[in-house]
Model the fold of this input.
Amino acid sequence: MLGPVILAASRSDRMRRVVSAAPVTKPVVNRFIAGESVEETAPVIRSTTDRGLEVTLDVLGEDITDPAEAMLARDAYLRLIEALAPMELGARAEMSVKLSSFGQALPGGHDLALKNVTAVVEAAAEIGTTVTLDMEDHTTIDSTLAIHAELRERFPQTGAVVQSYLFRTEEDCRALAAAGSRVRLVKGAYKEPASVAYQDKAEVDRAYIRCLTILMAGSGYPMVGSHDPRIIAIAQDLAHRAGRKLDEYEFQMLYGIREAEHHRLAAEGHRMRVYIAYGTDWYGYFMRRLAERPANLAFFLRSLVSRG
Done:
């Protein structure tokens, strides 16, 4: 029941000020955010990959109000690519981008976001890696998938994200599960109306399994974005039934959550990718992490009590 409340708070400027000012917030945020700059985050990238894991990197920032800010977001990713180049990690270190940070919600935002993300995808390809387009609220899906389709004409390795709590996602999975596609399946972390999304957790979980079944049976490359032990076990079974080898799909989990499971899966030979976010605009991302899992919220509340 608290999830929708927290998601609503993630859009509140007043709550942003309250949470950001709380002395306990910074130490707790550090559990989920790798740093404020690429320089702070580079050692985390290196230590993570040195331990046999892969990474996808998200430069935080969503509330873009003009084209100049969108260009700054683009430039932040280009700086990240410059930092990744000497590490020579190739596709072991890819990037995740939110098109809202590239101006998608502005007037003429579809074309603006396409222009900005294309520059990032081009630069990523030059160092042997790729980009996955994160999915945001349901009003952005058609634009995001259209940009994804256009990018894939030149850069077929460009990934997409789908969210199982949306009614439309099974059909999107059928369309995306084609040869060469890369699709990350997540449950969803935005407050969506009952007209477009399942509201009950059990329904979201069942939809996730239906979507994952479609992706595993398809010709693309599924990326299982979940921390749920039951989902992980089901994913392994579905992959086995589909005749997939261990390098024909991967698991993805968030930095700072279930790290022992990251290493367990990697030790078993699975491709395990850690979603690492960094930057100063962490509030929205942080609040969605609290809303997703009661354990995250409990961790934050325990920290508030102990610090108090």
User: Anything to note?
Assistant: The radius of gyration is 18 Å. The longest helix spans residues 67-84. The beta strands are 54-59, 93-97, 131-133, 159-163, 182-186, 221-225, 250-254, 272-278. The CA atoms of residues 89 and 129 lie 8 Å apart.
